[in-house]
Amino acid sequence: MWSRFWRVLIVAGVVVVQTAHAQQAVFPASMVERLHEELTPALGLVSYSYQVTNPATGQVTSNSSFAVGLVVSEEGLIMARGHMAMENVEPYNIRVKLGDGENERLYDAELLRKPDDVNVVFLELEPDSPLPQVSFAETENLQIGDELLVFGLMGQSFDNAPAVSVRRIGAILEKPRQTYVLDDPLPVGYIGGPVVSRDGGVVGVVGYDLSPAEGGDLYVRSGHPLVYQSSLFQTYVDDPHQEVPEDARPDAWLGVFTQPLTDDLAEYWDLPRNGGIVVSTILPGSPAQQADLQRGDVIVSFNEIPVRIRQDREVLGFTKLVRETPTGEATPVRILRDGEPKDLTVTLIERPRTARDAEEYEDETFGLTVQEITTDMRVVLNLPQDVQGVIVRRVRSGSWAQLARIGPGVIIKSFGERPIANLDDFREAVAQVKEEQPSEVVVFGRVGQMTGFFRIEPRW
Fold first, then answer.
1. 160, 45 contact by CB (below 8 A)
2. Most Cβ neighbours (<10 Å): which of 18, 254, 320, 378?
3. Burial (Cβ within 10 Å: 0-12, 13-18, ≥19) of residue 312
């Protein structure tokens, strides 16, 4: 079925491409058909459910979605788009459908890893026999205007049939890393699909970067399809179970929120229009506070590297510079304060654990899952440092906690009249309450700026 449908699609596709670009496509029909036969058996449909956690309230909602999966190892390694797993999104019930007709197989899969530096995920399944796979060519030097073949899947109304389209390299960006931008958008069914150059080599996959709102950080070119060249992820294909070395340098942390010194700000403050980083917020207890950085300071040099940032997107470069600076060492910082130059020294520390990496504790008796309060949570919730406790992340439906109207986002400050400062305190308090089995458990909590009591009536 797929082969017949595909041939019709290709004929229509060539007409569209020729009309759009007013020239003949560079891929002969025989070459396209050969590539179709080689590559589409390695395309699969990934279905999954996911939970989204609201970072402000802790409320968890569930949904389901689909993605294109690309088999990159005959042992069952699958690549898919990185939006499957984000900072506040956790996929589960992952299944991968491969093949067609009598050869169709459905596999259970697990999320193996998501690299920090490229927006893809790797899934793992256990096939009964070797799977058809895609092998990547060494990344070649693509040029602006080069035509590429892009493979993907049609939507559900077309039975997710494999499809092919032609795009060009519309732009090449060099910073913060080499980025190949396609000239036209693509349907979602192509995200994660293989990209083929004119010599027939698979040079990468279609990708979309995460936006800042989705957790994008160092490499943010969101909103338009890119070619993730194979050099960005080949090391993970070669060794998907690789671990971060124990002696790997941790990300450094300064503890500030910043904005670029735009030309308008420079003119307003009567400063040279050379760019810089304006310090807008300083987190309590951070290295920035210890170094006497102040709001309104303009960082013009960091670790003897000039900082000439004038646009929002360039702030990511400063973030990268800070993260890659050694921790525990005196780092020189030159600032402008009230227009006058001033030299400071800052000692960076390891980046604090974020809400995504925070430790959780689930108690099945009361139906509560709580989490430690991390630095980024304090920023989002505007929590002072003196507010201690644990934050409720999930509440089981019909549980004793839900009947007491305890919901996600509640900060538990005491449980059973025992003060709670951290997860260990909460574990111990719950254990003591279970042992004593009182008829009522009083919980003191905070929601926003309000505090109050919750009364749990257990049915021991």
1. yes
2. 254
3. exposed
Contact 246, 161 (CB under 8 A): no
Contact (CB, 8 A) for 74 and 100: no
- Residues forming a β-bridge with 332: 345
Residue 126, number of CB atoms within 10 A of its CB:
10
Cα torsion angle, 380, 383, 388, 391, sign: negative
For residue 346, the tally of other CB atoms under 10 A from its CB is 25
Measured between alpha carbons, how far is 41 from 69 in angstroms, rounded to an integer?
11
Whether residue 27 contacts residue 149, with contact meaning beta carbons closer than 8 Å, is answered with: yes
- Whether the bond between 458 and the residue before it is cis, its omega within 30 degrees of 0, is no
**Do residues 212 and 223 lie in contact, with contact meaning Cβ atoms separated by under 8 Å?**
no
One domain, residues 160 and 232: yes
Give the model confidence (pLDDT) of 182-237 as tens digits. 999 999 999 999 999 998 999 999 999 987 666 665 566 888 999 999 999 999 99
Q: How far apart are CA 259 and CA 346, in angstroms?
A: 19
CB contact at 8 A, 432 and 416: yes
Q: Report the relative pairing of strands 368-372 and 390-395 from DSSP bridges.
A: antiparallel
Q: What is the mean pLDDT of the chain?
A: 87
Q: What is the maximum span of the chain, computed from C-alpha positions, in angstroms?
A: 81
384 and 307 part of one domain: no
Report which of 81, 77, 7 is spatially closest to residue 37, judged by C-alpha positions: 7
Per-residue DSSP letter, 321: H
Task: Show the DSSP H helices in 122-238 as ranges.
Answer: 234-238
Q: Which two tokens stand for residue 285?
A: 């207890």
- Tell me whether residue 355 is in a domain: no
- 9 vs 185: CA distance, rounded Å: 18
Pick the last residue of a domain from 350, 379, 399: 350
Q: Please give the torsion angle defined by the CA atoms of residues 149, 151, 155 and 156, in that order, rounded to the nearest 10 degrees.
A: 150
Domain span at residue 320? Answer: 252-350
What pLDDT, in 10s, does the model give residues 357-389? 788 999 999 999 999 998 878 877 788 888 899
Tens-digit pLDDT profile for residues 282-315? 988 899 999 999 999 999 999 999 999 998 877 8
**Inter-residue contact 117 to 137 (CB < 8 Å):** no
Q: What CATH number does residue 222 fall under?
A: 2.40.10.120
Rounded-to-integer distance, Cα 121 and Cα 46, Å: 12
Contact yes or no for 204/136 (Cβ under 8 A): yes
Place of tokens 């210890």: 290
Tokens of 159: 């039975």
* Residue carrying structure tokens 């900072």: 87
159: left (phi over 0), alpha (psi -120 to 50) or beta: left
